[in-house]
Amino acid sequence: MASKITVAIDGYSSTGKSTMAKWLAAEVGYRYIDSGAMYRAVTLYAMRNRLIDNNRNVDQVRLTEALTSIRIDFCRDGNKQKTLLNGENVENEIRMMDVSSNVSVIAAIPEVRHRLVALQRELGKDGGIVMDGRDIGTTVFPDAQLKVFVTSSAEVRAERRYKELLEKGEKVAYEDVLANVVERDHIDETRDESPLRKADDALLIDNSHLSREEQNQWLLDRFNEQC
Length: 227
Hints:
- By secondary structure, the protein is α/β, with parallel strands linked by helices.
- Helix content is 48%, strand content 17%.
- The strands form two sheets. Strands 2-6-1-7-8 form a five-stranded parallel beta sheet. Strands 3-4-5 form a three-stranded antiparallel beta sheet, with helices on one face.
- The mean pLDDT is 93.
C-alpha cells in the first residue's frame, strides 16, 4: 500500500478551502486539520481574558505567557468536526463576526504562530492529513506532496460569508462583511511572520464561478495524480 501523503490547502479567507479540505479528507480517509480554527480559538481566548481591546490592541506579553496553558484539539460529532479550547466545544463561537474581526491581528503575532505551527506539525507528522490555512504549504509543511492555493474575488467571498452569518442568526451588513474580508486580506498578505502567499509549487484554483461539485472533482483529480 502506498504511503499516505500530506495535503496542504492555503488561500484567502472565505474561499471555501475548509469545505474543500473536509470533503477531500472524508473522501480519501485522511484526517482533516483546520489550522484556521486554531487561530480563532486563541483569538477567542484573548477576547475572553481581555488580552485584546476594542481597538484591537493586544497585550502580547500576557498572551505569550498564556500560550503554554492554551490547549486546542478537535473531536468528531457525527459528520461534524468540533474545535475544543481547553476541553470546551467552541466551534460555533469561533465562527462569529467578532472573532473574525480580531483573528488576523492575533495570527500576526510571531509567538502565536510559532506555538501553533509546532502543534500543527506534531498533528501531521505521520502524513495522511489534509490541512488548510494561510501558510501550510509555505511554512508548516513546505515538503507537502500536494499543495493547493485557493482564491476568488473579495465580493464573492464576502457574499458567501454574509449568507453564512445570516444562517447562523447574526445581524450583519454585507458592506461590513466585505470590509472585513478586504482588511483580513491586507493583514494576512503584509504581516511579517509567514505572510499569506502562494507557494511556488502550489496549484492555483480560482473558485469564483465553480460549483462545489466542480471544485471537489478538481481537487480529487489532483490528489489522485499524486498517489
